[in-house]
Design goal:
2 domains, Rossmann fold, 4-stranded antiparallel β-sheet, Arc Repressor Mutant, subunit A, 8 helices, alpha/beta
C-alpha cells in the first residue's frame, strides 16, 4: 500500500453485513473502499473506481461472481487487477471453476478480521513483487512472450491469454527444459494457502496447448510440465 495514495479495494457481495464488515475493517487500515451489492453494479463500479483489488462473492443473484470475473478478465484494463473470491462454499469444483476464470485467491466466509487483513496484505505484496520484476522477452521457436506488453505471439500472430495462462507459460518459458511440478506451479503462480488439487493446473495447461500447439509443453507423467527446447 502506497503512503501517498491508498490502495483501492472494491467489494462485490449481495450481503450487506459482509460489505459493512469488510469496509469497517479495511478502512481502519487505510484502504479506500467501494462496494456493490450485485454483479451488474460491480462491473460498472469496477470501470469507474479502477480498484487494485476486488473482493468478489461467488453466489450472487443476477450475475454470479464467476461470470463477473470472466467479464473483467476479458477486458485488458483488468489484466493485472487482483481478484479474490469470497465464498461460504468449500467444494473443489467451485474453487476450480473460479480460478479457471481468472481468480487469484479464495477467502472463505465467515471471515475473521485478522485473517482478512493477512490475506489482503499477502495478495498486495505478491502484486507489488510482480510489478517490480524486470520486463523480459522469452522466445522458444516461433513462440514469443513479451512480459512488458502482456503479449504472446505465435508465428507473429498475437494470441489472447487469460492472466493465469500467461503466468504459467511465462514460468515455463523462463527456464526451458526445467521440469516444474504441479505443486511448484501452483505455489509460484497463486502463492495461496488454498489447495484445490492438481486439476486446476492441468486445465490451464490444456488451454495453453489449445492455443500454441501440443509440441511446446511436455508432460512428465507423475512429475509435472516443462517447455520442450
Amino acid at each position: 500500500m502506497s503512503d501517498s495514495q491508498p490502495t483501492r479495494i472494491l467489494v462485490i457481495d449481495d450481503e450487506e453485513d459482509v460489505r459493512n464488515f469488510i469496509t469497517y475493517n479495511l478502512t481502519k487500515d487505510g484502504f479506500l473502499l467501494e462496494t456493490a451489492e450485485n454483479g451488474r453494479d460491480g462491473l460498472i463500479k469496477a470501470l469507474q473506481f479502477k480498484p487494485t483489488l476486488i473482493l468478489l462473492d461467488v453466489m450472487m443473484p443476477d450475475i454470479d461472481g464467476i461470470e463477473v470475473c470472466r467479464q473483467l478478465r476479458d477486458d485488458r484494463e483488468f489484466d493485472q487487477t487482483i481478484i479474490a473470491f469470497l465464498t461460504a462454499r468449500g467444494e473443489d469444483y467451485t474453487q476450480v471453476a473460479a480460478l479457471d476464470h481468472g481468480g487469484d485467491d479464495f477467502i472463505v466466509k465467515p471471515i475473521k478480521p485478522n485473517v482478512l487483513r493477512s490475506r489482503i496484505n499477502a495478495l498486495l505484496r505478491r502484486h507489488k513483487r510482480a510489478g517490480t520484476d524486470n520486463d523480459q522477452i522469452y522466445q522458444i521457436g516461433e513462440l514469443l512472450l513479451d512480459q512488458a506488453k502482456f503479449e504472446i505471439t505465435l508465428k507473429g500472430e498475437a494470441i489472447e491469454f487469460a492472466k493465469k495462462e500467461f503466468q504459467i507459460l511465462e514460468l515455463l518459458m523462463s527456464s526451458p527444459g526445467k521440469v516444474f511440478s504441479r505443486q511448484e506451479i501452483f505455489r509460484k503462480i497463486w502463492d495461496s494457502e488454498i489447495i484445490v488439487g492438481e486439476r486446476t493446473i492441468d486445465v490451464h495447461v490444456r488451454r495453453i496447448r489449445e492455443k500454441v500447439g501440443d509440441h511446446y509443453i511436455k508432460t512428465l507423467k507423475g512429475v509435472g510440465y516443462k517447455i520442450e527446447v
